[in-house]
Design brief:
It contains 6 helices and 8 strands. With about 170 residues, the chain is α/β, with parallel strands linked by helices. The strands form 2 sheets. A 5-stranded parallel sheet has the order 2-1-3-4-5. α1 crosses α6. The two termini are about 30 Å apart.
Protein backbone atom coordinates (compact mmCIF):
# COMPACT_ATOMS: atom_id res chain seq x y z
CA UNK A 1 0.00 0.00 0.00
CA UNK A 2 1.45 3.41 -0.96
CA UNK A 3 2.43 5.88 1.74
CA UNK A 4 -0.06 8.66 2.51
CA UNK A 5 1.49 12.09 2.11
CA UNK A 6 1.94 14.06 5.34
CA UNK A 7 0.61 17.59 4.97
CA UNK A 8 1.27 20.22 7.64
CA UNK A 9 -1.06 23.23 7.85
CA UNK A 10 0.35 26.28 9.65
CA UNK A 11 -2.22 29.02 10.12
CA UNK A 12 -3.15 31.20 13.08
CA UNK A 13 -6.82 31.15 11.96
CA UNK A 14 -8.58 28.50 14.02
CA UNK A 15 -11.32 27.99 11.42
CA UNK A 16 -8.69 27.04 8.82
CA UNK A 17 -7.02 24.66 11.28
CA UNK A 18 -10.38 23.02 11.98
CA UNK A 19 -11.67 22.66 8.41
CA UNK A 20 -8.69 22.21 6.11
CA UNK A 21 -7.46 18.92 7.68
CA UNK A 22 -10.89 17.37 7.12
CA UNK A 23 -10.71 18.25 3.43
CA UNK A 24 -7.12 16.98 3.19
CA UNK A 25 -8.13 13.71 4.86
CA UNK A 26 -11.01 13.34 2.40
CA UNK A 27 -8.47 13.87 -0.40
CA UNK A 28 -6.41 10.97 0.96
CA UNK A 29 -3.71 12.83 2.92
CA UNK A 30 -2.57 12.71 6.52
CA UNK A 31 -2.88 16.24 7.91
CA UNK A 32 -1.71 17.94 11.06
CA UNK A 33 -2.23 21.56 12.05
CA UNK A 34 -0.14 24.12 13.88
CA UNK A 35 -1.15 27.55 15.17
CA UNK A 36 2.28 29.09 14.54
CA UNK A 37 5.52 28.51 12.65
CA UNK A 38 7.31 28.09 15.97
CA UNK A 39 4.92 25.29 16.99
CA UNK A 40 5.56 23.54 13.66
CA UNK A 41 9.35 23.80 13.99
CA UNK A 42 9.24 22.36 17.52
CA UNK A 43 7.08 19.39 16.49
CA UNK A 44 8.13 15.87 15.55
CA UNK A 45 5.92 16.21 12.45
CA UNK A 46 8.33 18.80 11.00
CA UNK A 47 10.74 16.09 9.79
CA UNK A 48 7.89 13.91 8.43
CA UNK A 49 6.19 16.65 6.40
CA UNK A 50 5.89 16.07 2.64
CA UNK A 51 4.18 19.42 1.96
CA UNK A 52 3.52 22.54 3.99
CA UNK A 53 0.38 24.66 3.57
CA UNK A 54 1.39 27.95 5.12
CA UNK A 55 -0.47 31.16 5.86
CA UNK A 56 1.41 34.28 4.77
CA UNK A 57 0.51 36.70 7.58
CA UNK A 58 0.58 35.44 11.16
CA UNK A 59 1.41 36.89 14.55
CA UNK A 60 5.06 36.38 15.42
CA UNK A 61 6.97 34.63 12.64
CA UNK A 62 5.32 35.12 9.24
CA UNK A 63 4.96 32.47 6.55
CA UNK A 64 7.78 33.92 4.41
CA UNK A 65 10.00 34.08 7.53
CA UNK A 66 9.32 30.37 8.15
CA UNK A 67 10.20 29.67 4.52
CA UNK A 68 13.54 31.45 5.04
CA UNK A 69 14.17 29.51 8.27
CA UNK A 70 13.41 26.19 6.56
CA UNK A 71 15.91 27.03 3.81
CA UNK A 72 18.49 27.92 6.47
CA UNK A 73 17.90 24.52 8.11
CA UNK A 74 18.38 22.78 4.75
CA UNK A 75 14.77 21.66 4.50
CA UNK A 76 13.31 21.15 1.03
CA UNK A 77 9.66 20.82 2.11
CA UNK A 78 7.47 22.12 -0.76
CA UNK A 79 5.38 25.09 0.40
CA UNK A 80 1.92 26.21 -0.69
CA UNK A 81 1.14 29.63 0.72
CA UNK A 82 -2.43 30.65 1.48
CA UNK A 83 -3.52 34.22 2.10
CA UNK A 84 -6.61 36.35 2.51
CA UNK A 85 -4.74 39.44 1.30
CA UNK A 86 -4.73 39.96 -2.50
CA UNK A 87 -1.75 42.31 -2.41
CA UNK A 88 0.30 41.04 -5.33
CA UNK A 89 2.84 39.03 -3.34
CA UNK A 90 2.02 35.75 -5.09
CA UNK A 91 4.65 36.13 -7.80
CA UNK A 92 7.36 37.09 -5.31
CA UNK A 93 6.57 34.08 -3.09
CA UNK A 94 6.67 31.70 -6.06
CA UNK A 95 9.95 33.26 -7.24
CA UNK A 96 11.35 32.60 -3.76
CA UNK A 97 10.54 28.89 -4.09
CA UNK A 98 6.90 28.39 -3.13
CA UNK A 99 4.92 25.94 -5.25
CA UNK A 100 1.90 28.26 -5.25
CA UNK A 101 0.13 31.02 -3.34
CA UNK A 102 -3.63 30.51 -3.11
CA UNK A 103 -6.02 33.32 -2.28
CA UNK A 104 -8.61 32.46 0.39
CA UNK A 105 -11.20 31.23 -0.24
CA UNK A 106 -9.64 28.78 -2.68
CA UNK A 107 -11.36 25.95 -4.51
CA UNK A 108 -10.68 22.31 -3.80
CA UNK A 109 -9.44 22.05 -7.40
CA UNK A 110 -6.83 24.79 -6.91
CA UNK A 111 -5.67 23.15 -3.69
CA UNK A 112 -5.47 19.69 -5.23
CA UNK A 113 -3.51 20.96 -8.25
CA UNK A 114 -1.06 22.79 -5.99
CA UNK A 115 -0.67 19.71 -3.79
CA UNK A 116 -0.01 17.50 -6.80
CA UNK A 117 2.70 19.92 -8.02
CA UNK A 118 4.20 20.07 -4.54
CA UNK A 119 4.22 16.32 -4.06
CA UNK A 120 5.95 15.78 -7.40
CA UNK A 121 8.78 17.84 -5.88
CA UNK A 122 8.81 15.82 -2.67
CA UNK A 123 11.14 12.82 -2.88
CA UNK A 124 9.41 9.45 -2.73
CA UNK A 125 5.98 10.84 -2.02
CA UNK A 126 3.01 9.66 -4.09
CA UNK A 127 0.55 11.96 -5.78
CA UNK A 128 -2.91 12.04 -4.36
CA UNK A 129 -5.58 9.94 -5.96
CA UNK A 130 -8.57 10.96 -3.86
CA UNK A 131 -11.93 9.22 -3.68
CA UNK A 132 -13.62 12.13 -5.41
CA UNK A 133 -15.18 12.43 -8.83
CA UNK A 134 -15.09 15.67 -10.80
CA UNK A 135 -17.42 16.60 -13.64
CA UNK A 136 -18.02 19.72 -15.68
CA UNK A 137 -20.95 21.75 -14.49
CA UNK A 138 -24.25 21.37 -16.33
CA UNK A 139 -24.38 25.13 -16.98
CA UNK A 140 -21.36 24.88 -19.30
CA UNK A 141 -19.41 27.57 -17.45
CA UNK A 142 -16.56 25.22 -16.74
CA UNK A 143 -16.99 25.29 -12.97
CA UNK A 144 -16.17 22.05 -11.24
CA UNK A 145 -18.80 20.05 -9.38
CA UNK A 146 -17.46 17.92 -6.58
CA UNK A 147 -19.31 14.71 -5.79
CA UNK A 148 -18.46 12.91 -2.59
CA UNK A 149 -18.88 9.21 -3.22
CA UNK A 150 -20.50 8.46 0.12
CA UNK A 151 -22.50 11.71 -0.19
CA UNK A 152 -22.46 12.31 3.55
CA UNK A 153 -23.51 15.59 5.09
CA UNK A 154 -20.30 15.96 7.13
CA UNK A 155 -18.24 15.88 3.94
CA UNK A 156 -20.43 18.52 2.36
CA UNK A 157 -20.19 20.70 5.45
CA UNK A 158 -16.40 20.42 5.52
CA UNK A 159 -16.07 21.35 1.87
CA UNK A 160 -18.43 24.28 2.14
CA UNK A 161 -16.65 25.60 5.22
CA UNK A 162 -13.19 25.10 3.73
CA UNK A 163 -13.86 26.63 0.35
CA UNK A 164 -16.42 29.19 1.51
CA UNK A 165 -18.81 28.37 -1.28
CA UNK A 166 -16.17 28.13 -4.03
CA UNK A 167 -17.33 24.61 -4.86
CA UNK A 168 -20.80 23.55 -6.01
CA UNK A 169 -21.98 20.47 -4.13
CA UNK A 170 -24.64 18.11 -5.40
Amino acid sequence: MPKQANIAVVDDDESVRESLPDLLNMLGFTARTFASPEEFLESDFFRQTDCLILDVAMRGMSGPQLQTELKRLGSKIPIIFITAQPNGQRQRLVEQGAVDCLLKPFSDTALREALNRALRLSDGCPEADPPLERNQSPDGCGQQILRIEDNNSRGKSVLQKTTDGAVHLS
